[in-house]
Design goal:
Blueprint lengths: L3 E7 L11 E5 L4 E5 L6 H8 L7 E6 L2 E2 L5 H7 E4 L11 H6 L14 H13 L15 H15 L3 E5 L7 H16 L3 E5 L3 H7 L2 E5 L5 E5 H4 L2 H8 L3 E6 L2 E6 L2
Parallel strand pairs: 3-8, 3-9, 6-7, 7-8
Antiparallel strand pairs: 1-2, 1-4, 4-5, 9-10, 11-12
Helix pairs in contact: 4-5
């Protein structure tokens, strides 16, 4: 069964006419990348898929069921969302924040137990923030906060990851580590859909791509068919030069 099914979906981008209706399925084991210039609606799409925004038309189905028919706790047990930007609602430590990922599985007023703590600490270790476990989130750098956000979703252990610029604020080493983690989640039978600005990360790590154009047009399919220089140049309004490195295409702006 598909982790996510999008049926004739038209996202609501303020001030823009309806674009092409989207219809695709995100299957277990797939890593999807959403590409497009600023303002095309990548974040709006992600929030719509998570049920945080209402589409103009169409439907989103999670594990075969209409998203709108599910309670938020049911959604949170299946779907994890990494936001592009986060705001601290209240003072909390890094460990306490990671433990939030287990809340969908706890009954009201139930405290986290040893298993929840084990999962959170393993996720913090995996994202290289375990040494910060007792620090307040407000004292972290942007990159540390980003890794904590991903660790929190890893603690949540959803079948479907939706990630908005998951490598935002990260240095080169942690970019590679996070992309490898997301690919590993897919390899274990989960599914990942993420918005990316870095075309080369998408080319190296994604097996499916969705291209969103400024005029509302869209196309999607296997990465090898989407990574056509002419289509990408039209997407970004930028001439590109292409090379191959370690078996993957690399795109750089042409002079």
């Amino acid at each position: 069964m598909s982790r996510l099914e999008v049926v004739r979906l038209v996202i609501d981008v303020p001030g823009r006419p309806d674009g092409r209706a989207l219809s695709f399925q995100v299957e277990p084991g797939q890593v999807w990348g959403v590409l497009g210039p600023n303002g095309v609606g990548k974040t709006t799409l992600l929030h719509t898929l998570a049920g945080l925004r209402t589409p103009r038309a169409g439907e989103v189905r999670l594990a075969g069921r209409p998203l709108g028919a599910l309670r938020r706790r049911e959604v949170a047990r299946q779907l994890g969302l990494v936001f592009q930007e986060r705001h601290d609602g209240f003072p909390a430590t890094v460990r306490e924040t990671a433990l939030i990922g287990r809340h969908p599985y706890l009954s009201p007023w139930q405290m986290e137990g040893a298993e929840e703590l084990r999962l959170a600490e393993a996720a913090l270790e995996r994202l290289d923030v375990a040494h910060l476990a007792d620090r307040l989130v407000g004292t972290l750098s942007g990159g540390e906060r980003q890794r904590l956000a991903i660790a929190t979703v890893l603690t949540q252990a959803p079948a479907l990851w939706l990630a908005d610029e998951p490598t935002n604020h990260l240095d080169l080493h942690h970019q590679s580590s996070v992309m490898a983690l997301l690919a590993g989640q897919a390899a274990e039978g989960r599914a990942v859909l993420m918005c990316l600005h870095d075309l080369n990360l998408a080319a190296r790590w994604c097996d499916q791509l969705l291209l969103l154009y400024p005029d509302g047009e869209a196309c999607w399919g296997p990465a090898e068919t989407m990574l056509e220089p002419a289509a990408l140049e039209r997407l970004y309004g930028q001439r590109l030069a292409t090379a191959w490195v370690d078996g993957a295409p690399v795109f750089v702006p042409a002079r």
